[in-house]
Structure to design on (444 residues):
C-alpha cells in the first residue's frame, strides 16, 4: 500500500474521479443510444450495422442527440481540469478542508449540471456550472498558495 | 530517480501516456492536413496563408476532414479519463495485474479505434470503443476497491 | 508538507496547471458572454432566462461565438495531454531542465495561441499551436527515456 492511500484527501479525490468518470461514460453511452433511437447517423457505415431504414446524414445531428452531446462536451471541458488540478492539489499537500469542499462540491455540481442539462432546467444548469467553475478556481488559487 | 520510477505499473502507465499523446497529436495534425487538402477553412484568415483560391466557410467542415475530427474528438473524450484514473490507480497502489490488463488494453483499443474510424470499419469501431470504455470502468471499480 | 512540494519541477508544473486552468475557464466564460451578446442560443430554455427577444436556434452558433468556442476547444484538446504528461514527467523524475523549457514553453505558447485565435492573427496562431505540440512531443520523448 502506498503512503498516499492513507491520505484522506487522496481517498476522496480517487472516489470523485471514479464517480465522474462513470458519469462521463454514461453521457457518452446516452449519446450513442439517442442517436440510435433517432435513426440518424454521422457516419454512413453506422446505418448499415444498425437499421436498414436509417437516414444517412453527414455532419447533422438529431436535436435530442445534440442535447445529450452538449451535456457530454460540457463535462469534457471541465473534467480534465479537475483531474489535473485535483492531483496537483493532493500531491502539493494543500488544505485538507479545501480538498473536502472543492472535490465534493465539484462532483455534486457536475452531477446536478448533467441532470439539469438533460432536463432543460434553467437557471439551474447555469448555477451548477458556476459552482463547478468556482470549485476549480478555488483549487487553482489554493495550489498557487501551497507551492508559493 | 524517484521511487515511482521503479514501479512496473507506473512505467507501463508512463509509456501508454506517451503513446496515446502522440496518437492524439497525430490525429490533430491529420485534421489540419485534410482541411488544407480540401481547401476549406473554418477561419477566414486561414485561406490567406494557405491557398489563394481556397473557399472561405465559417462553421462548415469538409466531409473527409469531419471524419478525422470525429476520431480526434472521440479520443479527446476518452483520453483525459485514462490520464486521471490511470495516475490515481498507480498512486493508490491498486492491482498490478489489473494495471497491466487495463493500461495495455485501453492503449491497444484506442489505437485500433482510431484506425477503424478513419477507415470506416464497422462493427470494429464500436467494438474497440466498447473495449476502451470497459477498461476505464474496470479501472474506476478497482480504484474504489483500493481506497475503500 | 509533501516531499514533492520542494521539487522545483513540481512547483513549476503546479503553477502552469493553475494558469492554464484559469485560461480555460476564461475562454468558457467568453463563449457564454459572446453567445449572450449575440442573443442566439443552442438551447431553447436559455433564451427565456436571458432576453425576451432572443432567437432560438438549435445547433447553429453565431460566428463570433463560434470563434471563441474554437479557441476553447483547441485548448481543450491540448490541455489534458499537458496535465497527463506533465504529472508523469514530474513523478518519473525526468530532466529538470526539460521540465523548465517544456512547462514554461507550453504555457506561454497556449496563452499566445488563445490571443492569436481570438484576434484572427495568422500565421501566429499556427506557429504557437506548433510550439505547444512540440513541447508535448518533447515531454513524451523524455518520459520514455526516463522510464526505459
Amino acid at each position: 500500500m502506498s503512503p498516499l492511500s492513507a491520505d484522506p484527501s487522496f481517498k476522496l479525490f480517487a472516489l470523485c474521479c471514479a464517480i465522474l468518470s462513470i458519469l462521463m461514460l454514461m453521457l457518452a453511452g446516452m449519446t450513442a443510444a439517442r442517436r440510435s433511437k433517432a435513426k440518424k447517423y454521422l457516419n454512413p457505415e453506422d446505418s448499415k450495422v444498425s437499421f436498414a431504414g436509417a437516414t444517412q446524414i453527414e455532419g447533422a445531428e438529431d436535436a435530442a442527440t445534440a442535447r445529450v452531446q452538449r451535456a457530454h462536451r460540457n463535462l469534457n471541458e471541465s473534467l480534465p481540469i479537475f483531474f489535473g488540478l485535483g492531483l496537483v492539489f493532493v500531491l502539493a499537500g494543500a488544505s485538507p478542508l479545501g480538498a473536502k469542499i472543492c472535490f465534493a462540491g465539484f462532483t455534486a455540481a457536475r452531477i446536478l449540471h448533467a441532470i439539469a442539462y438533460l432536463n432543460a432546467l434553467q437557471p439551474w444548469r447555469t448555477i451548477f456550472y458556476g459552482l463547478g467553475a468556482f470549485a476549480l478556481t478555488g483549487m487553482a488559487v489554493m495550489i498557487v498558495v501551497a507551492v508559493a
